[in-house]
Amino acid sequence: MPTNVYTYTDDGKRYCGILMHPTSLPSEYGIGDLGPGAYDFVDFLAAAGQSLWQVLPLGPTGFGDSPYQSFSSFAGQPLLISPEQLVRAGYLTQEDIRSIPKPAFDETRADYGKALAYKQPMFELAYERFLSRGGFTILGDYFSFYLKNKYWLDDYAFYMACREYHGNQCFTEWPEELKAPSSDVRHRWTIKLNRRIRYYMFLQYIFYSQWNELHAYASQKGIRIIGDIPIFTALDSADVWANPSYFRLDSKGYPTEGSGVPPDYFSADGQLWGNPLYDWDALRRDHFSWWIDRIRQQLTLVDILRIDHFRGFSACWAIPAGETTARNGHWTTVPGNEFFETLVRELGDDLPIIAEDLGTITEEVIALRDRFCLPGMKILQFAFEGDYENYFLPHQFKTANCVCYTGTHDNDTTAGWYRNTNDINKDKVRRYMSTDDGGVSWAFIRTCMASIAKYAVFPMQDVLALGSDARMNIPGCSEGNWGWRCRRSDFHPDTARALYQMTRLFGRLEAQQL
Question: Mind telling me the catalytic residues?
Fold first, then answer.
């Protein structure tokens, strides 16, 4: 039984902000990125008196475009690289950009495939210019970046170059010698793929440079960024390929059991994610070093970190290989207390971590969350379904150490939810929030801000009162997700003023003065 006691430290401030992934930002290149649209959004947040910007995982995505299925737990998404910023840094010219045929993009939807096809020639040109300057040989910014990130960057760049060479297939389909290469094999392939390996390193250097500059700008404006990491990794990733002993795999590299969640609010069959499960005994023997490196590195990119599926640190839903749904899984325990004890020793008592504690939550999960004073999540949409005394209702909150959301990226927009819910739930909303059908989205935001929760967060779609067609993700649906984008005109001064007034009314304005 754990004996150490940790105490919640309250800075006396009340924070609020907006959830919007960078891919949803306005840009000219088919997908949101770290260019002018991102800086316009930070300016909008500041004008609106907001102190938080929450994003989804920032890693490179594969099939399905899900930020929760990444090729690396450490790398950044190259599609977020801004061509405008490449021009400003001298790696591209405006003529370079004009020379590449531009597809017809829908400014309201991110098109990952089309955006990649359009941006990749720009990246290749920028890489050639970088090489022509002796970029890898001059001691400077790149060299400093490489030394700080070598522990993951070497594996990631090698993995991506090999993956590209083998037709973008997962490592399980590579030649046997590359599935777990000896030092001699790796050296030989490093020489063979040297130029492409360095290309992937270059992209990470550019991503980190642009992200760090944007993060610094947000900090100057009094805005903290909340990041997000999935608890599990994708099978098709440098993480699993480089560290197979940390995962439950068979002799060919395939998971013996996959991850997911049992039947719940989102799906009658549960969710079959398929990510390999961790071998926590192996992680424990290495003092959880891979996990600690992961969290430490993410906290260099963001100020606060939400861990998705936090209950997986108490027990995880293990689904036998070959199952087509998540129904036939079983719970397997995880040494969460021991892991967080180690994390506290490495990073300090006051962990800037938010626990995504939704779904099937047990007393053990609550005890783990509360022992380490981690704020949990309260979803207002859930508050009006079922019981009148639902514990997501603001008057039922037991502590201010939580994050109150109108909804998350996995929920319908608030306007869409209200339109689709039953009449009993609609009646509860109208009477609880003293609103009518036309003002529901902002009534949810107002209720969120008015709650005792230290943090209040709402998706940009709710600020804009958008319907279901602006939904970011439908859990369990493999297509059509992660595409919503806003327009520059959505950062309207009138909207910012209205948010500012509400933020001031509910005592959350001074949190912006960090």
Answer: 308, 356, 410
